[in-house]
Amino acid sequence: MIAGDGGGGLNLGPKRGDYSIAGVAGGLGQMARRLSVGLYAAYMIMLIVSRPESALARGVVASAMILGLFALRLAWLQVSAKFRIRRCYVYREGLAVTDWFGRVHTVVAWSNVIEVRRTIALSLVMAFHRIEIAPRGSAVVAFVVLGQKPALVEAVLSQARRHGVLR
After folding, report:
1. Span 141-156, mean pLDDT?
2. Which CB contacts under 8 angstroms, 24+ apart, belong to 71-75?
3. What's the half-sphere exposure (Cβ side, CA atoms, 13 Å) at 76?
4. Angle, vertex CA 86, rays to CA 83 and CA 87, nearest 5
5. Average pLDDT score over residue span 147-167
6. Which of 2, 58, 118, 159 would you call most buried, defined as having the most Cβ atoms within 10 angstroms of its Cβ?
7. Residue 110: pLDDT band with limits 50, 70, 90
8. Is the pLDDT of residue 99 over 70?
């Protein structure tokens, strides 16, 4: 249903961008990755200071585990992009959000939006933006975007400004 530049039959005009979004699982995964990197750093310092006999083997195993975590994340990013899982498509006249199966879950036209709210949470273990879009006469559309300065946030806010939702 989501196609190249025509809005996939959604009548939303040309596509402005295709972005990954997250939920609770994505936030917890981000937190787990960051905590594991911190524990890895502490473990490596401990190995260097205490110098046990098997320090090299222990360091290799710990490094392989950390590399495996990052490889899993990269693989998930590729799979989710290929199958359009948990994506937000920003169009000139609106946006579309897909679900876990790659189907369009929510479509919002900018002409129906009355408010856009953004919540930011930045810390050492977590960084995300929650975007809430309130359409006229419908339930609020909310999604989470991971990262300190994700491109989706700027794309949504610039389209909202362009259509007079934000000042």
Report:
1. 95
2. 73/29, 73/33
3. 16
4. 85
5. 92
6. 159
7. very high
8. yes
Long-range contacts of 56-64 (CB under 8 A, 24+ apart): none
CA distance 119 to 129: 6
pLDDT score recorded for residue 129: 96
d(CA 23, CA 29): 10
131 neighbors 156 (Cβ within 8 angstroms): yes
Cβ proximity of 150 and 144 under 8 Å:
no
**Secondary structure (DSSP) of 68-121:** HHHHHHHHHHHHHHHTT-SEEEEETTEEEEE-TTSSEEEEEEGGGEEEEEEEEE
Tell me if the pTM is above 0.85: no
Collapsed DSSP state (helix, strand, coil) of residue 15: strand
Give the percent of the chain with pLDDT over 90.
83
